[in-house]
Design brief:
The complex is a heterodimer. Chain A is of the alpha/beta class. Chain A contains eleven helices and 14 strands. Chain A has a six-stranded mixed β-sheet with strand order 6-7-8-3-9-10, sandwiched between helices. A four-stranded antiparallel β-sheet of chain A has the order 2-1-4-5, covered by helices on one side. In chain A, α3 (112-122) packs across α4 (127-140). By secondary structure, chain B is mostly helical. Chain B is globular, with a radius of gyration of 20 Å. In chain B, α1 (16-37) crosses α5 (113-141), α3 (67-100) packs antiparallel against α10 and α6 (152-179) runs antiparallel to α10 (219-231). The chains are: A alpha/beta, B mainly alpha.
């Protein structure tokens, strides 16, 4: 008989987790109940890099907030390192590190050193240890030479690297990274991804939420896709990609393509889905279709006369293609 | 990156008091750094005290013929400054994190929020001491008020006790801000009633009887009495004595602290249930 407490064999264990938000009237009566999480289940192994992906409003942030003890669930159970998120919040907080994406979470008017000293003290790190540990961490994240500058002078990428140092300041066993590369330029995002890999190599368990499918595919051992408060798929990126093995992807780089062209492509027979980035001077359009290269003549003939295809490639479907199918179903 | 493995392991501080002391120190130091990093600190700490003192002197100018009455005014103005800074500071202690986007990081720390807020309120009340000292300096230098304190030792003890009682009161105010981002409206609206009820500028004895229970429940009322008894020769005030004032002050301060810690626990749990903690 297994006498281990719930969740102790996993770094994270979530069972039938539910969170409802009630909108109340002025008199306190409940007007509307919204289910942000609808009974989700998943577990993360110790030392695993696990991804949680989903569209905005799918329930990723709610899950992260519950797991980091910032929000109480309305149903179900969640365990971090074998500890109950409802009962053992201070012990859990001592043993996890959190990276919030974007500009949140730092004191901009003081230096990186001041930020790390403050959080180091809040997390109870021995001051004699933090005197050594903080400069070492700043060196690791490449901020040692600007440690005494006010954070408000930092670029977005530098702030995000400081976030990583902040999350590591108390030497946590588990890291929760909530959209850590959001808004970063490609170089900055690559630096953060390298740091994430490094942290995993050192044995840290990592829960990563991201909007970027290639990031989840590149980094995560397993990925859970969450949509409308439910987990709609959970597997390795390669297994998830098998969901779309019946299609190929025609990727076009175009000049002068408009939304009308994208709509025309969507209307073509055998086109499953079209995803387009029209914001740049050179547009990228991905067309999912079982026809693969055989679709090219139709794609070319639908092109308006003032637009041009610069480049066309037939690609294997990616995690993003699988994800789109899962969340749109 | 690299070299993560070579970083010194993060050994933790052991012991309840050592941990709480570390948190208080960290919060006081950070709040001080943030305070002086913003050049606007000159407004509440130098310009506002000057205006307070000026108003008080013009208000009572004709009657302020004796040195002890002038000192009475200076002490009252100083306490008004201290209270004003405390009330705004206590709102700011938690409110700052809301608009700065650091609320989640603060809440995620493995320490009760009440201790983080206490550290911040202690510094914010200390800002009030800076404010009061400026008023004293302005009174002494500009208005030629003599600083002939009757008993400097007791004056210091009463001032320190008042400082602690204001901090405890500020912590209590913090729970309102924690409950709702609109809480600042409530705490800020308490500024003037507390000036009046605690007798900073007018003796409490002239207040209508219905207002007296409110005045007596405010610890600063007893702090101000004790300060004046130790500073002003022949001061009668509420006809109490120094030590009884200090005893009531201590009891009320402890009650504020107990209530604040209890409310923090309840309000934090409530806000976690309702998902309102990090709204800003």
């Amino acid at each position: 008989m297994n006498s281990a407490p719930p969740g102790s064999q996993f770094a994270i264990e979530v069972r039938n987790l539910t969170r409802e938000y009630a909108t109340r009237s002025f008199f306190g009566t409940v007007n509307k109940v919204t289910k942000a999480l609808d009974g989700i289940d998943f577990s993360v192994n110790k030392g695993e890099l696990f991804g949680l992906i989903g569209p905005n409003g799918a329930g990723k942030t709610t899950t992260v907030k519950i797991l980091t003890t910032l929000l109480t669930q309305t149903g179900g159970e969640a365990y971090i390192l074998g500890l109950d998120v409802r009962k053992d919040l201070y012990e859990i907080r001592r043993r996890i590190g959190i990276v919030f994406g974007g500009e949140r979470g730092l004191y901009n008017r003081v230096s990186a050193l001041d930020n790390l000293r403050y959080f180091s003290d809040l997390y109870g790190v021995d001051p004699t240890v933090s005197k050594m540990r903080i400069p070492q961490l700043l060196k690791v994240v490449g901020l040692a030479d600007r440690a005494e500058e006010r954070v408000e002078k930092y670029s977005r990428g530098m702030k995000q690297r400081l976030h990583i140092a902040k999350a590591l300041v108390h030497d946590p066993e588990l890291l929760v990274l909530d959209e850590p590369t959001i808004g970063l330029d490609p170089g900055g995002a690559r630096d953060i991804r390298n740091m994430i890999r490094e942290m995993q190599k050192e044995g840290k368990t990592i829960l990563l939420t991201t909007h970027y499918m290639f990031e989840a595919e590149e980094l995560c051992q397993r990925v859970a896709v969450i949509s409308k408060g439910k987990i709609v798929a959970l597997d390795t990126p390669s297994e998830l990609k098998r969901l779309v093995r019946d299609i190929s992807v025609v990727e076009l780089r175009t000049y002068g393509a408009t939304s009308d062209y994208v709509e025309a492509l969507k209307r073509l027979p055998n086109v499953v889905r079209v995803v387009a980035d029209l914001d740049s001077e050179v547009q990228t359009i991905r067309i999912q279709s079982p026809l693969g290269a055989d679709l090219l003549p139709q794609v070319t003939s639908a092109l308006p006369s003032d637009a041009k295809i610069i480049d066309r490639t037939i690609k294997e479907p990616t995690l993003e293609d699988a994800y789109l199918r899962l969340v749109e179903e | 990156m690299g070299a993560l493995a070579e970083i010194t392991p993060g050994k933790k501080v052991e012991g309840y008091l050592a941990r709480r002391g570390q948190v208080l120190k960290a919060c006081i130091v950070l709040t001080a750094k943030l305070f002086f990093a913003d050049p606007q600190w000159i407004v509440p700490s130098i310009i506002a005290p000057f205006i307070f003192t000026l108003v008080a002197f013009f208000l009572f100018g004709g009657q302020a013929s004796t040195g002890s009455f002038l000192l009475y005014l200076v002490l009252g103005s100083g306490l008004m400054g201290m209270w004003g800074t405390t009330i705004y500071g206590s709102s700011n202690s938690i409110g700052f994190d809301r608009w700065n986007g650091t609320m989640e990081s603060t809440l995620a720390a493995p320490v009760p929020l009440s201790w983080i807020a206490l550290g911040r309120v202690l510094f914010n009340t200390f800002e009030g001491v800076i404010n009061a000292l400026f008023i004293l300096v302005i009174g002494l230098a500009w208005f030629q008020v003599g600083f002939g304190v009757v008993n400097p030792g007791l004056f210091f003890l009463a001032s320190l006790s008042t400082f602690l009682s204001l901090s405890a009161f500020g912590l209590l105010m913090c729970t309102i801000i924690l409950l709702s981002r609109k809480g600042g409206f409530i705490t800020n609206s308490m500024e003037i009633p507390v000036y009046i009820a605690t007798g900073t500028m007018f003796p409490v004895s002239i207040l209508p009887i219905v207002a007296l229970p409110f005045a007596f429940l405010l610890a600063p009322t007893w702090g101000i009495e004790a300060i004046r008894l130790s500073a002003l020769p022949g001061y009668a005030g509420l006809a109490t004595n120094y030590w009884s004032d200090l005893a009531i002050l201590a009891l009320e301060t402890l009650a504020y602290l107990g209530l604040a810690f209890f409310l923090f626990k309840r309000v934090e749990a409530y806000a976690k249930r309702n998902g309102t903690l990090d709204e800003y």
